[in-house]
Write a structure and sequence with these properties.
This protein has a single domain, classed as 3-Layer(aba) Sandwich (UDP-N-acetylmuramoyl-L-alanine:D-glutamate ligase). Helices cover 31% and strands 25% of the residues. It contains eight helices and 13 strands. Helix 1 packs across helix 6 and helix 6 packs antiparallel against helix 7. The mean pLDDT is 94.
Length: 301
């Protein structure tokens, strides 16, 4: 299996279950097991998903030297993820609050000052030669790693999440350098094929995946110049769709690193993401590879 590196955000995440959007005002709402606080963040979610599936990713991140430091490190150690590339070099760890129901979610993300910090590139010299795939999340401290891994001939994968412009100033570097590019259709509803064709024409991504929520996904494979839509699958009741994109992205990378098969990887990723959204938080609901394959066999996915 190819060796995978993940560079991305760790947050302290609080999820709050609500009845409906928009939220009706009342002075007090009582919740019983509807509020949950965990360690999350796109980078952490991807690293945890890969580890749960069976990989041993190298994980790079930046966190605060604050009251959450030991909690984060304890959880990272519990998952048997190497913590030596997780650097507590800012004052406060990023935090998020997520309001959700079965259909929608609203994310409120406080990045503190992490966007002003660069990841010290000297820290990756010891692992650069051993990495085959670099999953570089679109947080600013990953930006400086894009050219390093590209020049080293590594496969770069990135998820730019919600974009609506192929010239998006913030995400352009990630779109330009990525061999494997994921994004959501949330800001391009009804124009997914047009936007995909714009990406194909402007960049040289080998694989592009646009998540379509409950309608599945669109996949472009430059090897055969084919665009194909895959329907969503259902494995269990949906609880919270937060983190579905991270789950799809990480599981695709995992199976692609093992098999080099785009079709096999995307089919397994759809099942992995479907099962994941039966969990409450963005970092919950991940399956081991064997359990995932058992579900595929039992349900004929």
């Amino acid at each position: 299996m190819k060796n995978i590196l993940v560079s991305g955000l760790i947050t302290i995440e609080t999820t709050v279950r609500i009845d409906r959007f928009p939220v009706n005002y009342s002075p007090v709402d009582y919740q019983f097991n509807g509020i949950n606080t965990t360690i999350s963040g796109v980078g952490f979610n991807i690293a945890k998903a890969l580890k749960t599936l069976g990989a041993s990713p190298v994980f790079l991140s930046i966190i605060g030297n604050d009251i959450y430091l030991n909690i984060i490190m304890d959880e990272v150690n519990r998952l048997n993820l190497d913590n030596k590339f997780i650097l507590p070099i800012i004052d406060s760890t990023a935090q998020s609050i997520i309001l959700y129901n079965e259909e929608k979610r609203k994310i409120i993300l406080d990045l503190k000052n992490i966007q002003d910090i660069k990841y010290p590139v000297k820290n990756i010299d010891t692992v650069l030669n051993d990495i085959d795939i670099a999953a570089l999340c679109n947080i600013n401290f990953s930006r400086g790693l894009l050219k390093i891994f590209k020049d080293a001939g590594k496969i770069i994968a990135s998820d730019v999440h919600v974009v609506c412009d192929v010239n998006d100033e913030y995400n352009m570097d990630f779109m330009r350098y990525s061999d494997i590019l994921f994004l959501s259709n949330e800001n391009i509803l009804g124009s997914e094929y047009d936007f995909l064709n714009q990406l194909i024409g402007k960049y040289n991504n080998k694989i592009i995946v646009i998540g379509l929520g409950g309608s599945g996904l669109l996949l472009f494979n430059r090897e055969n110049n084919e665009i194909k839509q895959y329907p969503a699958v259902k494995t269990r009741k949906v609880v919270n769709t937060i983190g579905a994109g991270d789950a799809l992205f990480s599981s695709f990378i995992y199976f692609f690193a093992k098999t080099n098969s785009v079709q096999y990887s995307i089919e397994k990723a759809l099942v992995f993401a479907s099962y994941k959204i039966g969990g409450k938080g963005a970092a919950e609901g991940f399956l081991h590879e064997k359990d995932l394959l058992d579900i595929c066999i039992a349900s004929n996915f």
